[in-house]
Amino acid sequence: MQNIRKYYRFLRSFRDLEEKSAEVIRHHEVPLEWLHKKLRRNQFLTLSGILVGCTAGLAGVLLKALVHFIHLFITQDYHLPYQLLFYLIFPFLGILLTVVIVRFVLKGKDGKGIPKVLSEIAQKSSMVDPRKMYSQIIQGAVTVGLGGSAGLESPIAITGAAIGSNYARTYRLNYKERTLLLAAGAAAGIAAAFDAPIAGVMFAMEVLLAGVVFSDFIPLIIASVCGALLSKIILGDEIILHFRLKQDFNYWNVPFYLALGVLSGLYSRYYMLMANRVDHFFERYRGRVFLRGIIGGAALSLLCFFFPPLFGDGYESIKVLVDQSGASLLTGSLYVNLIQHSWAVLVFVGLICLAKVFATTVTISSGGNGGNFAPSLFAGAFLGYCFAYALSMAGWVELPIANFAIVGMAGAMSGIMYAPLTSIFLIAEATGGYDLFIPLMIVSTTSYLIVRRFSPYSLEVKRLVDKGQVFTRQHDRNLLSLLHTGDIIEKDIRIISPEATLRELVALIKISSRNLFGVVNDAGELEGIIVLDDVKEVMFNTELYDSTHIRQLMKNPPAFIDVQEPMQQVMKKFDETGAWNLPVTNGKKFLGFVSKSSLLNRYRQLLKDYSTSEEEL
Question: What residue ranges are annotated as transmembrane (predicted)?
Answer without folding.
Answer: 44-72, 84-106, 179-201, 207-230, 251-270, 290-311, 343-365, 377-397, 404-428, 434-451
